[in-house]
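Student: Please help interpret what follows.
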Amino acid sequence: MKNQSNASFGGKSTVLKSLALGGGIGAVNALFGGGGGMLAVPALQGLGLDQKQAHATAILVILPVSALSFLWYLFGGLYDINIIIPTAIGTLAGGLLGAKLLGVLPVKTVTVIFAVLQAAAGLWMLLR
């Protein structure tokens, strides 16, 4: 498994930037129920990761906050079981497909798809 990056991690400045980035991503993800990846990908690229590494890393750094949010909402009763199960099945299938596509699509294609989806999500929220 490839885990090399163009970023040189370990310096105090990079660690502080990563901590601040993680705090912002966690807050956005928890506050809006997702969306941390929309911030994480460009920010991780700013730290030196390429597009595909940034996407994969964003998923991995969002996993813990998603798990905590899940438990928070589960114990708070803020869910609808009739929606959770089919949505979780669809999300799992889509996640597997997306991970497979990320491994084979050219970086430029991934960048364009990501930008189009960000714009579409923003427009949808504004016009909703």
User: Anything to note?
Assistant: Helices lie at 12-32, 36-46, 51-76, 81-104, 107-127. The chain has a mean pLDDT of 83.
